[in-house]
Automatic annotation (TrEMBL):
A Pfam family: ABC2_membrane_4
Keyword Membrane among record annotations: yes
Domain of life, per lineage: Bacteria
Organism: Candidatus Copromonas faecavium
Protein name per UniProt: ABC transporter permease
Transmembrane helix as UniProt keyword: yes
Transmembrane annotation, as ranges: 17-38, 58-78, 105-132, 144-165, 177-200, 220-243
Keywords linked to the UniProt accession: Membrane, Transmembrane, Transmembrane helix
Length: 264
């Protein structure tokens, strides 16, 4: 598994699609702070500090920027095997297809942690440039850790979408848009079971994010329901992984035969 993860990371570093996440996460704190500047004066937060910016970034990353970036990049890592016609070699190497997909998911998880670190750094840089108050070591440990934890749990939520749309040739872009819509829906869940069990809400709750203070939730979220929602996502991911296959041998042999004819 380590060799697969290492290979995927080496390939990913050379690909321009990585800049999708880098640019998106750099824009998040800028967009969140810029929103404060363009809204009506009566709607602005007069006490906007580093803590407020971190809350905005955690929410924006989980709701929009990370789902789009992770599904697009993770789906592309799977889809490139079809696009580059390398999937036909899978039956000739001693690596099960499920293990290959698992390695790609592990690479996506590792990437999400790096994105979390990067997002926290960009948030600090943005807040420092615009002159926000409230920066302290305690704040960095608490909310910086929440940024990284939220990125990790958001990646877990996105894994079924990565697997599904990554294996449909050319569909990872559509999958990222659908995941964006699913992430945006957390805005509407302020009570009931979905407040805690909805996967994207569960990612925020497990990261320690205060849904009542930010989302206007009318009741306290349940950690048990959040764990149940995340567990359901993991079970779904394992189920999709176990039933995934690279296609029939007949199709693979046809591709190999067509490749030999072109070579002649």
């Amino acid at each position: 598994m380590w060799n697969i993860l290492n290979g995927e990371w080496r390939k990913l570093r050379r690909c321009q699609i990585l800049f999708v996440g880098i640019v998106a996460l750099a824009l998040c704190p800028v967009v969140q702070y810029g929103t404060q500047l363009i809204v009506n004066p009566e709607l602005r937060d007069p006490n906007y500090t580093f803590a407020s910016l971190f809350d905005n970034v955690i929410w924006g990353n989980t709701q929009i920027f990370l789902p789009i970036s992770l599904v697009m990049i993770g789906g592309w890592m799977i889809d490139r095997e079809n696009t580059n016609d390398t999937l036909k070699n899978l039956l000739t190497v001693p690596v099960p297809y499920q293990k290959l997909l698992g390695g790609k998911l592990m690479a996506a998880i590792f990437l999400s942690l790096l994105f979390g670190l990067y997002s926290a750094a960009v948030t600090i840089l943005t807040g420092t440039i615009v002159g926000l108050d409230g920066l302290s070591a305690a704040l960095l440990l608490r909310q910086g850790g929440q940024v990284i934890a939220a990125a990790f749990f958001t990646c877990l939520v996105c894994m079924p979408m990565i697997l599904i749309f990554g294996q449909i040739r050319g569909a990872y872009l559509g999958g990222s848009l659908l995941t964006f819509f699913l992430g945006y829906c957390i805005l509407f869940f302020k009570s009931g079971v979905l407040l805690s069990a909805y996967p994207f809400s569960a990612a925020l709750i497990l990261a320690g994010f205060d849904m009542q203070a930010y989302n206007g939730a009318v009741q306290a979220p349940s950690m048990l329901l959040a764990l149940a929602g995340m567990a359901a996502v993991l079970v779904l991911t394992v189920g999709i992984l176990l039933f995934s296959h690279p296609g029939s041998r007949k199709e693979v042999h046809k591709k190999k035969k067509a490749g030999r004819k072109r070579a002649k």
